[in-house]
Amino acid sequence: MTTKKLAARKTAAPLHPNATAHALAVPPSERRLRLGEGLAYAPAPETTPVKIDATYGLFLDGAFTKPGKTFATLNPATERELARVTAATAKDVDRAVQAARRALPAWSALPGAERGKYLFRIARLIQEHARELAVLETMDGGKTIKESRDIDLPLVAAHFFYYAGWADKLPYAFPGRTPHPVGVCGQIIPWNFPLLMAAWKLAPALAAGNTVVLKPAETTPLTALHLARILQQAELPPGVVNIVTGAGETGAALVNHSGVDKIAFTGSTDVGKRIAATLAGTGKKLTLELGGKAANIVFDDAPLDQAVEGIIAGIYFNQGHVCCAGSRLLVQENIHDEIVRRLRDRIATLRVGDPLDKNTDIGAINSRPQLEKIRELVASGQAEGAQLHQPAGRLPQTGYWFAPSFFTGVTASHRIAREEIFGPVLSILTFRTPEEALERANHTPYGLSAGVWTDKGSKIFKLAAKLRAGVIWANTYNKFDPTSPFGGYKESGFGREGGLHGLLPYVTLR
Ligand code: NAI
Ligand code: MG
Question: What pLDDT sits at residue 39?
């Protein structure tokens, strides 16, 4: 057995000396009071073994290259190196683009039903390998196994299944128009949902007959590389998908390559703006899915128990590393104190710690720079006069952690009310009337998502029509489905992913 084989088990150890050590909030004595004697959770470490190579090459033209100059990807929960991956140079990117270009004529000429078969095969293989991919995702990125196993991986497979179904129905997708593939697509994805973002980008592109060069994020490249093995198993023709690992420079080389017909980018608004400027006037197609600062609006007639769960899911899901996170809670003034009381109780029950433990609610922050960004913004909130609420308890010494937190006394001008924190930190503001809620909700340069909690359907419709956000959840939050389009307004970007709308960026209509 290789040492890496049982890495999943080993990483569990340091954070889990015993059942109580990894519950952040409540000291053991108190916790018994809350949970009842004997009801404390025992550790439940994930044991699915995953074989991780020491070094990875690039996936070009259907095969892995010899590793070039490499960089490390860490497990953010342990700060230990998991593997080394190749930093693709501009020359490597060029090879990838050329491979994609060579593969394009045959792939795009294939009958849709045949392309669909490949996509169905990929979807099924992902299901077969779901557990190990979930473990790998959790180890490389820090998200809880609960989420990677029950949310990310099922959605990854669902996206391939969904777009597999479109592959032979493209002639009916756009009545009166004939869709043609765009060509070679450069796809750059972030670290918060590594495999899911790969699926969002690959599945529609391939269904529509395009070929792809995909660049995963530098802190989470491993699941994309293991997906490449699945593509090999599915016997996807060489060059249809190429995967180049690396950081911003590799991404920039892809954006700048003249042989790319379309760029799809998910990531920060800063980089998105730079890409838009680079591509202006080149004729390349572009879609951008950028940041957000979503309003989650709770009226006094909302079912409060459900709303509190929705607030928790809205901001603490995936450590708050979610572009559509409900990071600005707008609560009707007369229920503010009640909501704050309930939130304070609720966050005291959230378990922070080993992401590979099935009981963990909040995993590791993805990287040290991201942790520093969260700390800096939280410090600004305190300096500007907002009150920080955090559960008591200590965080693990090793790894990158941030306690589930919320701020009261936030005003619209505070940085924590305006800037994307991308961490488990909620800013609470109040409103009195629906008009004020709407005005406050739309008072942001972003426009990706919003939530509305009320018992009154008419209020939901009225607000949803006027909220400037691409996705609006009513009496729920952070629900995703491959049939439902997702994307932003304003500085949250443009273009949609998911659903029929998600095909549009990958076709030209004649
Ligand atoms: P980033 O935008 O730098 O990274 C996203 C992807 O873009 C990565 O694959 C990265 O390698 C690539 N990239 C970086 N510079 C590039 C360039 N010049 N040309 C082409 N590709 C490039 O985001 P970062 O620095 O990791 O996170 C910073 C902040 O961005 C976060 O704190 C969060 O607020 C936001 N963010 C939003 C995401 C979203 O889902 N909308 C995802 C990730 C970050
Ligand atoms: Mg990593």
Answer: 61
Residue 384 per-residue DSSP state: T
Q: Measured from the CA of 189, which atom of ligand 1 is nearest?
A: 9
- Looking at the fold, whether 392 and 263 belong to one and the same domain comes out as no
Which residue range is the domain that position 421 belongs to? 295-474
Total of domains in the chain: 2
d(CA 492, CA 311) in angstroms, rounded, equals 21
Q: What angle do CA 263, 265, 266 make, to 5 degrees?
A: 165
Residues 23-45: tens digit of each pLDDT: 444 444 444 344 444 567 789 99
Our answer to whether residue 323 is catalytic in this structure is yes
Domain co-membership, 337 together with 278: no
Q: Which residues of the chain have pLDDT under 70?
A: 1-39
Distance 278 CA to ligand 2 centre (A): 29
Could you tell me if 108 and 93 lie in one domain?
yes
Which residue among 71, 196, 255, 271 has the greatest number of ligand 1 atoms within 8 angstroms of its CB, and so is best to mutate? Answer: 271
Nearest listed ligand to the Cα of residue 77: 2
Q: Which of 137, 323, 420, 491 is catalytic?
A: 323
pTM of the model: 0.93
Shared-domain flag, residues 140 and 283: yes
Q: Where are the alpha helices (DSSP H) in 208-290?
A: 222-233, 248-256, 269-279
Please indicate whether residue 185 is annotated as part of the active site.
Answer: no
